[in-house]
Write a structure and sequence with these properties.
This protein is of the alpha+beta class. Helix content is 31%, strand content 29%. The chain has a single domain (2-221), classed as 3-Layer(aba) Sandwich (Aminopeptidase). 26% of the residues are buried.
Length: 223
């Protein structure tokens, strides 16, 4: 299996990638086609395909922040079962981040991820792909070492229409030992930076950010 980076909307693979995202994820989770042009040029934003026999078997997007010394898993899509695509992407993603850490003098303390809470949401089929079921995805993140940040989380819809996306948890996978909580200001700074590309934020998101500014630390809880 090959691990192939996509870094331009002109790449022949990008059209397939974007259509797959639209088929798998709800509309509020997918950035418009043309708006991918600049992010894909950013060396800190990494979009890779798992390709088996010239067929796309999986997709992952992640990024790192040198300012905050953290990484973020944006999404992972498994398209073909029985090939070990999930472990392959997780291994290659980690290897890439460790290589980038050495090249850019990073000391990554961990990786954020958003995950749907299957016990609060009922209306996302994720294109009928069983391995993408929210319960399965949540358990996979738990096995990888992710933990839930203990606060009520919402995020702005990627359609930039000012809608709040709910039924999610913000999670964190520590790369260092003995991390059982994060500074609320650190979490706030990450969220504000991550969603800076969206100009239209819902009031629920602004209220959440304000509340984070009034807290000291946020505990990490099991998923």
């Amino acid at each position: 299996m090959e691990y192939i980076r996509v870094n331009s909307i002109e790449d022949s693979m990008f059209d397939r990638l974007h259509k797959t995202m639209q088929a798998v994820f709800p509309p509020e989770e997918v950035l418009e086609y043309d708006l991918w042009a600049e992010p894909l040029k950013d060396p800190s934003i990494r979009v890779f395909l798992a390709v088996e026999n010239e067929e796309v078997a999986g997709i992952t997007e992640y990024r790192y922040s040198k300012k905050l010394n953290i990484a973020m898993t944006d999404f992972t899509i498994i398209l073909k079962e029985g090939l070990g695509v999930g472990p392959f992407l997780a291994k290659k993603r980690h290897e890439d981040l460790m290589k980038l850490s050495q090249e850019h003098n990073l000391d990554l303390i961990g990786m954020f991820a958003e995950i749907y809470d299957p016990y609060r949401m009922t209306n996302h089929s994720f294109a009928g792909i069983k391995v993408m079921d929210p319960i399965v995805r949540r358990e996979v993140l738990s096995h990888l070492g992710y933990m839930r940040l203990d606060f009520s989380y919402v995020h702005p819809a990627w359609t930039n229409e000012g809608e709040a996306v709910t039924n999610l948890d913000l999670c964190f996978q520590p790369f260092k030992e003995n991390i059982d909580s994060l500074k609320a200001s650190f979490v706030r700074d990450f969220i504000v930076d991550y969603y800076s590309v969206l100009s239209n934020k819902p009031k629920e998101w602004n209220e959440m950010v304000e509340k984070l500014g009034n807290r000291d630390r946020i505990d990490l809880k099991p998923l």
